[in-house]
Amino acid sequence: MKKNFWLSGILGVSMLAVAACGADETEGDADDMDANGDDNDDVEAEDDEEDEDAEDETDEDDGDENGGDASVEGETYTVATDNSFVPFAFVDLDTDELTGFDIDLMDAVSEEAGFDVEYETVDFNAALSGIQAGTYDASINAMSITEEREDSVDFSDPYYPDSGIILAVSEEDGDIQSLEDAEADGATVGTGQGSTSQDYLEENTDNVDIEPYPDVTEAYQAVIAGHVDAVLYDEPNILYFVEEQAQGQMFTVGEKLTGEDYAIGMPQDHELVEPINEALETLRDDGTYDDIFEEWFGERPEGT
User: Fold this and answer.
1) What is the SS3 string spanning the chain?
2) What is the pTM of this model?
3) What residues contact 197, with CB distance under 8 A and at least 6 apart?
């Protein structure tokens, strides 16, 4: 034990001497080396690269510095809409431009998410079949979320909640004051082709002659002209037509039937689903959605 102690002492002194002699030469290097002998410059460079990679990954996950979604930013997507559905989407006769609640909302969504939109105006059925086939990237045309459609379409979060359907007639105090009256009379009831209103009539009536129209405005005109006895369709659309265009020739009767949410439809697993939902959430939080809603419906959404 004693031998080993002195041997250790000699070796220790020798090593100190060597260390002292080499201190000036190795001091700078020692600053660049860590306890494991790794070169700190290399480690720092690797750390910087890792930090940059992490920042890049964060940008990809959370969007770019302007708040857009990096995965879709700068891309252009084709969005189908039905331009005969006031006040959601229609052509302004004074400007000959596509306008409406749906259009303003879609424009705000695309701006928030950072992508561009090219609109394709088609009727409702063509828009629905187009996104089912992947012809269009999205469709915004007051499309109700239904279980059947969810089998072939991915929907955004609802943007217009609890929209029902309602009956309208040409005589305010006539014999038909409800769908039950229409069925009792064996009436002819117009509706939008492929709509949830047509589904409702087919599932809930036995003695009604259903007359579907590709353009629901034609159904309204048919009521006013007396070609059909009543029309059943989405309440917001009928109320807008009655107030703005019917000029006292069409009236709603009975209570609102069903309650459906409108959403933006997309092909299944489409890359726009999450960016659109994130943009919708932002527009609700910052009040933009409420402003657009008030512009088209005259009041802010219930509960805001």
Assistant:
1) CHHHHHHHHHHHHHHHHHHHHCHHHHHHHHHCECCCCCEHHHHHHHHHHHHHHHHHHHHHHHCCCCCCCCCCCCCEEEEEECCEECCCEEEECCCCEEECHHHHHHHHHHHHHCCEEEEEECCHHHHHHHHHHCCCCEEEEEEECCHHHHCCCEECCCCEEEEEEEEEECCCCCCCCCHHHHHHCCCEEEEECCCHHHHHHHHHCCCCEEEEECCHHHHHHHHHHCCCCEEEEEHHHHHHHHHHCCCCCCEEEEEEEEEEEEEEEECCCCCCHHHHHHHHHHHHHCCHHHHHHHHHHCCCCCCC
2) 0.68
3) 165, 191, 232, 233, 234
Report which residue type is found at 129. S
Rounded (5°) CA angle 11-12-13 = 95
The amino acid at 180: E
Condensed to tens digits (0 to 9), the pLDDT of residues 201-218 reads: 999 999 999 999 988 899
Spell out the residues 6+ positions from residue 288 whose beta carbon is closer than 8 angstroms to its own.
108, 282
Six-digit token pair at 7?
């041997």
Q: Which tokens hold the place of 229?
A: 């006895």
Q: Compute the mean pLDDT over every residue in the chain, rounded to the nearest whole number.
A: 82
**Each residue of 56-81: pLDDT tens digit?**
444 444 455 545 566 899 999 999 99
